[in-house]
Specification:
single chain, alpha+beta, 5-stranded mixed β-barrel
């Protein structure tokens, strides 16, 4: 009887430990989620609106999640990106310079969570951004005076797909 009880306990313990070590593989894996990547704190909000809608409704100074397409990314280190949605364009920077984006994201669909704002860039900053974007010296020289643009300080980014 003691041997039987020991055998049952050994089977349960060994069986349980092998389950804990084995990786979990789902038979119904969603292939779309494999392409999605989170950056920064990720996107927590389940409510998402189009970038153009957020701008039209002047959703400034409140945390929102918007969807758009990446037009360009800083080619120096990925420290900003330009998003577009129709005719709406916004420069995204990352809270506290806390994370960067891959430089090859142009054309990707993303969800960005953070705060939308209207900003004024100095001529110096506008030229700096143009240089980071890889613009020619002639294009950079054309930048004169302060530049008004929409800004978005992101706490998290979800890259959906290209």
């Amino acid at each position: 009887m003691r041997n039987i009880l020991f055998g049952i306990i050994a089977t349960v313990v060994l069986g349980t430990s092998s389950l804990a070590i084995a990786p979990h593989v789902s038979a119904s894996s969603d292939t779309r989620s494999e392409k999605q990547t989170q950056h920064g704190e990720g996107v927590k909000s389940k409510t998402r609106i189009l970038l153009s809608q957020a701008v039209a409704e002047k959703k400034f100074t409140t945390i929102i999640a918007v969807t758009a397409t990446v037009k360009e990314v800083c080619q120096v280190k990925g420290c900003w990106m330009i998003l577009v949605d129709g005719d709406t364009k916004v420069r995204v920077t990352f809270k506290d310079y806390g994370f960067f984006m891959p430089k090859n994201l142009a054309g990707s669909k993303v969800v960005v969570e953070g705060i939308l704002s209207e900003e004024v860039l100095s001529e110096k900053d506008a030229r700096h951004y143009a240089e980071d974007a890889g613009k020619s010296k002639a294009e950079i020289a054309k930048i004169k005076g302060d530049q008004r643009e929409l800004g978005f300080e992101a706490t998290g980014v979800l890259v959906l797909a290209k």
